[in-house]
User: Fold these one by one.
Assistant:
Number 1:
Amino acid sequence: MLPMEKIRISKLLAERGLCSRREADAYIERGWVRVDGVVVSELGSKAWPQQDITLDKQARQRQTARVTLILNKPVGYVSHQSEHGYRRAVSLITPENLYRAQKQQQRFDPSHLRGLAPAGRLDIDSQGLLVLTQDGRIARQLIADDSEIEKEYLVRVEGSMVPNGLAKLRHGLSLDGAPLRPAEVEWQNEDQLRFILREGKKRQIRRMCAIVGLKVVGLKRVRMGRIVLGDLPQGKWRYLREGERFL
């Protein structure tokens, strides 16, 4: 059954993973978007979901030039806006902190900082893999409500877990009045849990653990989709390499 109303083209482009809504508006303004082969240049234009929507070569070239970075964030840095005097994780993106294994492969350029934003949060007292990107497609892929990309964490805890606590962590808990998606949770050793989530609510793992009687004393993200932290040293960063994909 066809929808009763047309949908904004920027929304359709974002839903199809072609770009973010902000990028879509910029491309529309430049005349780089076509619906059924016809250029669209008016912001707010709408189309039917079944129509063919494409990006011109100029838009695709701009996307190709955008960088995505992998940072091993230390404790004490915030992933988004600075707070309480702490520094933002993006301040670590300097030529000196580029992982030595990549220095001869891709040269740092100050333009790589322009519009660079974290794709997903990592709390100030957590460490590990943080993705920063200029590419709205990658950001949506990682943080959209319907994202299926796994995020893996190693979590050190203390305290005594309530009966059936592990089962509750895997499925059945709610935060902020909404049920959490099923998670994979297992003991790695007597004081460390391994979490695999497909969502990222604020301080989610810490709050989940508190519900079942545990206190988190250390949290490290080690994987997002197919991208692993690997041997990237703390405080260092590298470029997402050609051919690397999160899905």
Number 2:
Amino acid sequence: MSGDSVSRRGFLKLCASTGALVASSPSLLARTPAERSHNTPARLLHNSGRPLRLEDLVVGENYVFHYPYVSTPCFLLNLGKPALPREGLEMDDGRKYNWRGGIGPDRSIVAFSAICAHRMSYPTPSVSFINYRHEQMTYTDQEFKLAHREQVIYCCSEGSVYDPAEGCRVLGGPAPQPLAAVDLGLDEATGEIRALGMYGGDMFERFFEKFAFQLELQHQVRDIRAPVGPDTEVLPLGTYSLNTNVC
């Protein structure tokens, strides 16, 4: 009986202390969404080798880094406008999740997997059929009508279009779900950026199965599933890929 009482008192004490911690630092709760996967953090590095900071990111530029694996590319973007949280995004298996929005003073910095949700086109060192278009472009929307919009991620392979300001929800084309999101963290004192995890439908296993041989050659690694480690380099897409404006 006394053991049960001690156990209950310990549980209540733990609940109270946890509640106090969250109340004092609500970001701890906010930065650990239940649907987040691949929780190994990685610091983003400028191509000079120093930590990447907010001021390094030019509005409208495509940046690429690898995360959470050495062979899985992601886009990092400064949209130049607030990207606010969005609820109820849906993966191709019907599960829903909430996108957390951008980081930074203007909430304009976002990151997503650069693997298209349709045929898994992705940036390679020779060519990228998927990229961010900051200027207005014309595409076919989900009702098969011509639409005009700026600030979209466009995949030339089959015309899939995503809105990075709204969690990369699908605007047009055959993609069955949004691009998987990178959960970004910001050191407000230094402006340094970290990748904390992924959430949404990442499709990594299908990606590895489909492109294993190509990925081994491109990255010169035997283990394409190796984690990126504590740091990962960020490059402009034009530096990473020889050809980027292909459609």
Number 3:
Amino acid sequence: MTFSLNEIEAMGKRAARGAGLPWGLAEEAGKAARWLTARGLPGPEELAEILTRNDGKSYDELAPVSAEGVWHAPSGRLCPLVAGAALCDRAAEIAAGREIEFGPTAQPLLLAPYAAGAARLTGAAVELSWAGAVMSFTPEGVSIEGDPAALTARSADSVQCRHAENAVVAPPVGAPGRVVDAETWSRLNAFAQRTFAPATEASRLAGAGAGLTDND
């Protein structure tokens, strides 16, 4: 089925919230899925995969900590949705020349919308790279280099984010939406359904649903 960018963002936000992310991070996750989709990249697929991989893990297991300057997660692999938000908090430092190195990271492509956000916040060019892939961002657009398989790798052993010099980027195409396969949409919807409280006899009597009234 074909879904609009608004639909993809809304589903991504609900799915991330259903997977246990706080509302603020869930909203950013939905925007990340939209950003990737608008540039012809697999936003819903990447989001469905990371939510599935993280299912059952606590925030503390996924949040980045720093050891000798390299960010890593107690769970073994950084979550790009959590690490990406932390990356945006360091936007000014990156623009000033600081390089941030991530240790093992799941779904590294999901860091791209956050790196783009850092470029937008500071007006500086930002480069994100991992084995086989390099992405450069400015407020005007993005450039992507690398093998498609590397761009959509399930994991990267190391990811670097730094200020970029003389980045040449292309403006976004502005795709209105895209086809998302049924299996991916179903996975996202399963997480989104967790945000709805199950009906109880008390909630029905209080006015949720038909209650004891026969509406037929």
